[in-house]
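Consider the tokenized backbone below.
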């Protein structure tokens, strides 16, 4: 199982990025999926996730700015990030929970300049 995250980069505050996470060796299906981030010196935190019952959840810090979605046909998970802030700077990881096992991607760096 491999999860490959991409789409990170350097963007100015107020800008947008769309992260993608492609799965190989498995399928996202309607299993629980999510995006997490880890900033330097901080613990990993949840950004957004979709539960197995398809209920979305967003961290307070990103509510209204970020949107999580998935394309079942393309077997890809997305995170649309708008109105980015410097405090959104972190490495973003995608996550899939399948058969009670957690799978993680290697992460993609997002840097937001002020």
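A designed sequence for it:
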């Amino acid at each position: 199982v491999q999860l490959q995250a991409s789409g990170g980069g350097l963007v100015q505050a107020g800008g947008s990025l769309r992260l993608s996470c492609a799965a190989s060796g498995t399928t996202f299906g309607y299993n629980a999926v999510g995006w997490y981030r880890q900033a330097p010196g901080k613990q990993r935190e949840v950004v957004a996730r979709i539960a197995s019952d398809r209920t979305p959840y967003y961290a307070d810090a990103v509510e209204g700015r970020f949107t999580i979605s998935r394309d079942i046909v393309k077997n890809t998970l997305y995170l649309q990030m708008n109105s980015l802030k410097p405090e959104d700077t972190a490495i973003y990881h995608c996550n899939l929970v399948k058969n009670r096992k957690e799978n993680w991607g290697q992460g993609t760096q997002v840097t937001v300049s002020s």
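The two ends are 37 Å apart (CA to CA).
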